[in-house]
Model the fold of this input.
Amino acid sequence: MKNSCNQKTSARNCEVFRTGLPDWFKQEIPSLECLENSRRLGSAGINTVCVEAKCPNLPLCFKQRKLTFMILGLVCTRSCRFCAVCKSKGLLPGPDETEPQRIAEVINDLKITYAVITSVCRDDLDDGGASQFSNTIKAIRKICPAVLVEILIPDFQGKIAALKSVLQAQPVVIGHNIETVSRLYRHLRPEADYWRSLELLRTLKQLDSLIVTKSSLMLGLSETEDEVISTMKDLRSSGCDILILGQYLAPSPDHEQISEFISPERFLDYRQKALTLGFKSVLSGPLVRSSFEAERTYRQSCL
Done:
């Protein structure tokens, strides 16, 4: 039965790749500036989730120097069925001690004023990689102290000490993505836990009531409208300030299938519902991703 299911999933995804995406997914061709910025990152040995997760907004964001840096390597210890990042249960190298400095230098070189830092999940590390987040923020502050830093963290397996570590580095935003509705967790995120993620967001607010928190939800994975609204309510009850809603796109025919394409009008409707629930800032649309327009959503949350 499992093999049959996988074959059906692959067939559906192949059909999407053959027939193409709806018109609202059309993007510009990468500019010379975009390619040059990409080359700079490659030369410095810097990874971005933009590249590794095959983000459709990469040409636009790289052109505008709005990047999401990915620390702790290119291999994740979890096996989420929607993610393009490489997975492994084997032995992985420890954190690269030179990485924070190299990222800080690239941020300074590219004159980035708002930096977003995320990572793969590293359950093999005692602190889940929290110290690398902290060291990266400190390195950025040392070289370019005016830069605002937002971080997008894994759940650190619920370890309070890890949360305290990243809070002490004083990012302006801490994001943690809920990703999908609770019903789909066992299938899509077998090593993650819906309630643990909510508790993480709640704990961040308990530790620092002034920290701006953020989460993201992918749509088009067979979730119902009631489930989406229920998840919004759960996030808001956990103190989440910023909500991001975007369309799931399968990175390859072998990843989880797309159940449906959500129209731009439905995304606008979800945005209005989210604002009614009390989120301080909401970004919602087919091409929206968790770090898309990160500075704008942060500034809106401060109004």
